[in-house]
User: Fold this.
Amino acid sequence: MGNRKISDAVIRRIVLYMRVLDEMEQTSEKDAISSYELGERTGVRAAQVRKDLAWFGEFGKQGVGYDVQFLKSQLHRILHLEKDVNVAVIGVGNLGLALARYNLERYKKEKEYYIKIAALFDNNPKKIGEIIEGVTIYSIDLLSEIVYEKEIAMGVITVPSLHAQQIADILVKANVKTILNFAPTTIVVPEDTRVHRADLSLELQHLAYYLGS
Amino acid sequence: MGNRKISDAVIRRIVLYMRVLDEMEQTSEKDAISSYELGERTGVRAAQVRKDLAWFGEFGKQGVGYDVQFLKSQLHRILHLEKDVNVAVIGVGNLGLALARYNLERYKKEKEYYIKIAALFDNNPKKIGEIIEGVTIYSIDLLSEIVYEKEIAMGVITVPSLHAQQIADILVKANVKTILNFAPTTIVVPEDTRVHRADLSLELQHLAYYLGS
DNA sequence: TAGATTGTTAATCGATTAACAATC
DNA sequence: TAGATTGTTAATCGATTAACAATC
Assistant:
């Protein structure tokens, strides 16, 4: 502890652990789980599970393991998934629509799924005003305004590559510092803004490499 | 060279380099590019660009850089993206449909985009037989057969989590050894099969962590 | 030639794994 | 208690970065 710069890889695994615990709580399988079993279920070594968790505190008991309910709630706290995270999806094409529907459905069904699609945006006048699962499609001109009104914390970019940078600029101006970019292009943002690439074609192109072996 | 176990991270970056070169070729900007500029455009250090490329050969010239056309064609070769890669999408819900449409559009528009969605599968009788951008939706019962017929090399799983493992099993039996899994669940496959996680909720949940700072 | 830029080696940094004393 | 399993330290492994001789 002390000089904490926790890597992205650790955070990703924490999400996996959290999910297993969410499931276990639902099914009331057991009250405790060992690092060994948590690893089994997520494809991670037991030693790494313990190391990952140790970054954030001492959650286990020797000889027993981790209390499911307790660790679950701790991991939710660590990931800031204790209350709704309001998300805007910009670009309601096929992908944006799929993402919105999928997440809204999960949000309704699952008690502990805090990702809330709170607003949709598009520049197509035919789409503006339409309502998807209770969420309105707004004009992109209203982005700053709605971001403020609905306390949007995260932006998902699903517009064509050509407009991705422009949308990112608007989000940055509207003080949205966390962006998930589905456009297959690199976008440039200030230091304090975090952009993650979620480039589906990249995944496919990347997998092609392994076709040889 | 010699004992080559090239990491996933390298391959991902190679895809990024390839894309920049594809673009440059289209726009005929210049004939050569330095590791420095290739790095600039992809968010990678020049030294790393050179290191990444060096895994596969000596493609540059001192004092000059890399020939755009030549390096482009080499990277396509390395990634096995010189000819069509036939892909099946299993599960034509919102996400599967979005993925199919998006990739088919790119395939039609871009000369050097070799990811070809060659077949769609679903178990909903209402959807079976429907044609999306020229590609038929088949019953999942026909998966093995069509995989063979259409020489499918890659499977994309976009069915609900509950069925993901079952679909993976069918793909494995049909000799599809490269799978992209969008279901938010861990699936188990034999050693020689490669599954990549493309879990969109994980991306969002993972980003939530950074909302704190 | 002089300047630019490669490919490669060595140094650094960070992440994973193994081992084990502490302790429930 | 005896067995199980933690949290942590040390060892290992791998990836990134810096530096530079080679050379176009």
